Amino acid sequence: MTHGNGALEIDTITKRYGDTVALDGVSVDVRPGEILGFVGSNGAGKTTTMRIALGVLAADSGQVRLDGRPVDLDVRRTIGYMPEERGLYPKMKVGEQLTYLAELHGLRRAAARRATARWAERLGIAARLTDPVDALSLGNQQRVQLAAALVHDPAVLVLDEPFSGLDPVAVDVMSDVLREKARAGVPVLFSSHQLDLVQRLCDRVAIIVAGRMRTVGAVAEVRRGAGVRLEVHAPAAPRGWADGLPGVTVDGTLDGRTTLLLDRHANDQDVLAAALATGPVHGFTLRTPSLTDLYREVVA
C-alpha cells in the first residue's frame, strides 16, 4: 500500500484539562523526507501533541492535517505510531500480532505476512516470531513495537520515545530505519530525552515548554542561535581584558583561562587580537553549544 507523502501539519492546537492548559496554541509541521525531533521535559505536552496528531485524542481547537487532509479514520490508517506506553498484546505471538496489525491497516493477508517477515528480519527479531510478546526482553519488545509501526508501510511516522530502553546496537538499527524512511520521503516525528541522538539524527528540532512551542528550527541554526562559547588561555592577561569587545560577555575566568560568550555580532578575530595584546595565547577554542546545553537554557 503506497501513499503520496505530504507534510504533517499541526496547526495551533490547544488542549485543556479542567483549569490546566496542557497545550497552548502549539504549531509545528513535519515535511516529507524530514526527521523532526520533539523535545521537552515530562509533562510539557509532547505525548498529548502526538496523540492529537494521531486522532486518538481530540484537540479543543486547532487542526492536524496530513497532506492537506484533516486526520480522520482513513488518514489515521496511513500513520505509523509507536506509543510511549507500549501497546502490544502480551500473550499473542509476535508474528501473528504483526500480521494482524498490518491487516488492520489495510494490507491483504499475503502482503501482511511478507511485510512481517521483512521487518522482523530487518529489526533482528526473525527468530522470535513464534514467541509470545511477554517472553521477550524489553529491548526486543521495543523492536516488535517499531515493527508494528512500520509493517503497513506508513505515509508518516509518529514515534513517542522510540529509543528508550534500547541497547546501542538496536539504537543504530532504529536510527538507520528512520533515516531510510526519511530518504523515501516519509515525514518522521519522534520525541526523545536523548538529546545527543536528536542532534545526530534530526534535520530540525522542536522544543516544547509547559504546553507552548518555544523553539522550532534546523538543529545547526538553533545551536548557533544560542551563541558560541570561546575558551581563551592567556596566562598574562589582566582582569577585564575582554571587557568592551562588541558582542562579547565574560562568563568566567580561572587560572588565566577565560570563558567568553559570543553573540552573532562578535568577531572572534578581534577577541584573538585583544588576547594577543596581553601576551602569549596558549589556547583559543570555539565551541558551539550542544543541543543539551541549549535545552537547559531554554527550559531554565
Q: What does this protein structure show overall?
A:
- The protein is of the alpha/beta class and 300 residues long.
- The protein has two domains: 8-223, Rossmann fold (3-Layer(aba) Sandwich); 226-289, Alpha-Beta Plaits.
- Helix content is 33%, strand content 28%.
- The protein is built from ten helices and 14 strands.
- The protein has helices at residues 46-54, 73-76, 94-104, 109-122, 138-150, 168-183, 195-201, 219-225, 268-276, 291-299, and strands at residues 8-17, 20-30, 35-39, 61-66, 69-70, 79-82, 156-160, 188-191, 204-209, 212-218, 228-233, 248-254, 257-262, 283-287.
- Strands 6-7-8-3-9-10 form a six-stranded mixed beta sheet, sandwiched between helices.
- β4 and β5 (69-70) form a beta hairpin.
- α3 packs across α4.
- The longest helix has 16 residues, at 168-183.
- It is elongated, with a radius of gyration of 24 Å.
- The two termini are 45 Å apart.
- The model has no long low-confidence stretch (mean pLDDT 90).
In percent, how much strand structure appears in the residues?
Answer: 25-35%
> Main sheet?
6 strands, mixed
Number of strands: 14
Q: Report mean pLDDT, rounded to a whole number.
A: 90
> Structural class of the secondary elements?
alpha/beta
Tell me roughly what share of residues is in helical segments.
25-40%
Membrane topology: Peripheral membrane protein
Organism: Pseudonocardia ammonioxydans
Family: Belongs to the ABC transporter superfamily.
Domain ABC transporter: 8-235
Quick structural summary:
Belongs to the ABC transporter superfamily. The protein has 300 residues and is α/β, with parallel strands linked by helices.
